[in-house]
Amino acid sequence: MSTHTPTCCRCGVKLTTSIASFFNLDIICAPCAMDERQAPGYQAAHDAEVSAIKNGNFNFPGAGLSPEDIAFLAWRRAERKATNPPAIVAR
After folding, report:
1. What is the average per-residue pLDDT within 45-59?
2. Rounded alpha-carbon distances, angstroms, from residue 73 to 45, 57, 58, 79
């Protein structure tokens, strides 16, 4: 049995649950998935995945992230970090 705790491919948090990205093969956390749904290219990525599955391609690697999507997702991560700083643990 592995004791490795996987982390989100986008923000690095430890995962207790995970979601597969519609853009690529990244395994992401729920907050990153919510950000992804707001990205400029999300609908096209979602539609491409649905089309691939309807055509029998169950191993579709995703439509990829455009420069605009990458910038948007980086901005959202920075916003989340600024409004939700990590807790300081007293020793």
Report:
1. 96
2. 14, 27, 26, 10
